[in-house]
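Re-running the complex after MR caught last week's input typo. The corrected sequence lines follow. Everything else is unchanged.
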Amino acid sequence: MKLQKLIDYLEAIAPPAYQESYDNAGLIVGDPNVTIKGVLICLDSTEDIIAEARKRKCNVIVAHHPIVFKGLKRFNGNTYVERTVMQAIKHDICIYAIHTNLDNVYRNGVNTKIAEKLSLKNLQLLAPKKNLVKLEFYLNQSQIEAYQKYYSKKGVPAGFHNVHSLLAVQTDKKRDVAEMKYETAVAENEVGDLVHFLQNSIGSKALQYNTYPISERNHQVGSGMIGHLAKPLLPATFFKRLKKAMDLKVFKHTAVLDKKISKVAVCGGSGGFLLSHAIRQGADIFITSDYKYHEFFDADGKIIIADIGHYESEQYTIELLHGLITKKFSNFASHCTKISTNPVFYY
Ligand SMILES: [Zn+2]
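Corrected-run output:
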């Protein structure tokens, strides 16, 4: 089976247009037309993971975090990112990342999995994105250059940062000009402005673009998740459940409040930006990671912040992806990595 078929399946679950502006989810290394020999699933596609893929005869890595976020200018092995990409290319291993687009879907998303582990009920997105449409457009090489020049002078309008995510490369055979296909999810009322900006940037009204409605019923999109416990628990009892469910040795938290925990907000990875949503929606505890010292003060007696570690919060994404892939395909082997790529150790 071709890799593209697996990508199509995963992107029907978590369309790349739902990724955040800073993200780089998608096929990062490799040819979508290769035949899949085996798939290795991980959070971080590091050099160790490439070695594991080789050992297990997998030519496709499905990772949560994109190994490449920004443009790379040299490939001489100076950084782990360069070395990983070089190793992948050298050994014909494809790297595909499914990141904030998988965070942001209600069904089968990263946060849905965490909520399931914590046995939360009545799940709702913590910060839903409303009235989204998918904007798809094509630019050729000279238009991209014109666009880049234009935005470096004018800046990019709000809501339009996703255009920098290159999602597919298509070749226009007739004119032999490489065309890049971009797609992004934007608020419906911003489409006009964004198309106008694009047309101005390339100095042409002949921009090829399409918009597609995003069905809110099938694809609720947004960050974080909030839900209820079956019955309220004392903080200490809930803390024990949290440690067991998320396989934690330790976790950091703010002052325990003098009430039971019944409403729980979660966000895998760095979710601090969602604290106000969690407080507004009456969560008793907000479980996420990557909190800094001063940010813990923002709990301010209104909520408990629990920082359980980035890797720990997202570890079950591997199980989630493995379940989704094996449920659909039986014509290749799909493995969860046996390596912990967590760069943080506890003593
Ligand atoms: Zn993450």
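None of the earlier attempt is carried over here. The longest strand covers residues 222-233. The chain has a mean pLDDT of 89.
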